Amino acid sequence: MNASLHPPARPSHASPQPFGEHLRHWRQHRRLSQLDLASEADISTRHLSFVETGRSVPSREMVLRLSERLNIPLRERNTLLVAAGYAPMYRERTLDDPALASARQAVELILKSHEPYPALALDRHWNLVAANRMVPHLLAGADPKLLQGPINVLRLSLHPRGLASKIVNLVQWRNHLFERLRQQIAATADPVLVALLEELRAYPQVKGAGDLHLDGEHLGVVMPFRFSTPNGVLSFISTTTIFGTPVDVTLQELAMETFFPADDFTAQALRALSTQL
User: Fold this and answer.
1) Prediction pTM value
2) Residues 121 and 210 in one domain
3) Rounded to whole angstroms, how far apart are CA atoms 120 and 153?
4) Per-residue model confidence as pLDDT tens digits over 71-119
5) pLDDT tens, 193-216?
6) Structural domain boundaries, residue 232
7) Of 50, 83, 116, which residue is a domain's last?
8) Distance (Å, rounded) from C-alpha 70 to C-alpha 219?
9) Dist CA 166 CA 208 (whole Å)
10) Which helix (H) or strand (E) element contains residue 119?
11) DSSP state letter for 230
C-alpha cells in the first residue's frame, strides 16, 4: 500500500479529543504548515499554534473558518464543533426523513428519468442507496451474499464472486475505481475507505477476467465500462452527480452514478430490455 494513502493518525472516537488534535490532524492531512493555514485563515501563526496546543479556545466562527479553509467534510465539521464545545451545525438524516422529501424526490426523478439506462445512488462508502429498474438486470449471477444489504458497489463489482468476470476491461476499470477511491480518501481521510481500498486490492485475480485496454481520445475525459451479458457486450460511459452546496451531511455524501450507452448496440439492447421488465 502506498504510504500516502494512509492519513495521519486521527483522533480516536473512543473518548472525546481536544479540538487542537482534530485540527492538527486535518492540517497535516492537507499537508499544510501552521504558517500556510494561518495565512489562509487570516490569523497569526502564534494564535493558530495556541489553538492546536489547547492554550487558546477558538470561537465558533473560528472553527467554521478553519474548517472551510481546510475543506473539511460536513460530518467532520460537526466533530470539530463539538470538540470545541459548540453544538453541531449540520444535520444528518436518512434519505426517507420528511425534511429531505424534496431531495428524495430529486433522486427518484433522476433515477427514473434515466431509464432505459442504468442509474444508482450511493452513500459515502459506496453502499447502494437506491437504483432504477435497469440496475438489477446487471447484477444477475453475483453471489447472493454480496447482494445482501448494504450492498457495497465496489465490492460487488470487483469481487471474484461478484461481477468481475463479466467486466471485459476489468484491469482498466479496476484501476479507474482505485484512482477515484484514492481521491476520495485524500478528500475525506475516511478510515473506512482506506480499509475498503486495501480489501479490494487484495482480491485474487479473476480467472478469465478481461484485460482489454481500450484506446481512444475519450479516455482523457471518461472511462469506458464494457460489460458482458447474455445479450452481448454492453459499452457504457458514466457520470457522477452530487448535490450543490448542501448543508446536510446526508446530501453532501450522496452521489448518483448514471450510465450512458457508448454505442448504438448498447442503446438498442437496453431499450429492448426495458420493454421486458
Assistant:
1) 0.81
2) yes
3) 10
4) 999 999 999 999 999 999 999 888 888 988 998 999 999 999 999 999 9
5) 999 999 999 998 866 555 655 554
6) 98-274
7) 83
8) 31
9) 9
10) strand 119-122
11) T
